[in-house]
Write a structure and sequence with these properties.
Layout lengths: L12 E6 L13 H20 L3 E11 L8 E11 L3 E11 L7 E12 L17 H18 L4
Antiparallel strand pairs: 1-3, 2-5, 3-4, 4-5
């Protein structure tokens, strides 16, 4: 069965969160683990929209934190598929934060997440190919294979 290719915009996800005190460390800064949780949720929705199936997190890698977010900040998270392999998909997620009284967003963090699409019996199923539409999407698409190869050759 040949699956119809999709472009990244078809499964793009945007999610908004507000940093509350229970999301922060003792310094009042957003905990990295909480940000990763929010990013994982956005990425899961993106993967599931692309695959048309439940998709589960297989890996989170190349996580980077840039600027701290604090209580009250608005966090905008965007998740986009970069490439589909056979049953897996790489999703790029970036998070930006801003103060309520300031409309300037600063990059808070980014990560690449790998998802596997599964059927009703939790068995992997094929996913549609990705057709990049822009030069940036093409670059992320090309680099996804490099990241996959790097993970395959990493020490176990």
């Amino acid at each position: 069965m040949l699956l119809q290719p999709k472009n990244p915009a078809e499964s793009s996800v945007q999610k908004t969160e507000v940093v509350f005190p229970n999301d922060t460390n003792p310094m009042g800064m957003l905990q990295g683990g909480r940000l990763i949780e929010w990013m994982d949720i956005a990425a899961a929705v993106c993967a599931q929209l692309h695959a048309g199936n439940i998709s589960v997190t297989a890996a989170i890698y190349d996580v980077a934190f840039f600027h701290p977010a604090t209580v009250g900040d608005i966090i905008s998270i965007e998740a986009n598929i970069t490439r589909a392999f056979n049953t897996s998909m790489e999703i790029y997620v970036q998070a930006k934060g801003r103060k309520v009284k300031n409309d300037q967003f600063r990059k808070v963090g980014e990560a690449f997440l790998l998802f596997v699409a599964i059927d009703d019996h939790a068995q992997p199923v094929p996913v549609p190919p990705v057709i990049p539409q822009s030069s940036e999407e093409q670059l992320l698409y090309d680099m996804a294979l490099d990241r996959k190869n790097r993970r395959a050759h990493a020490p176990k």
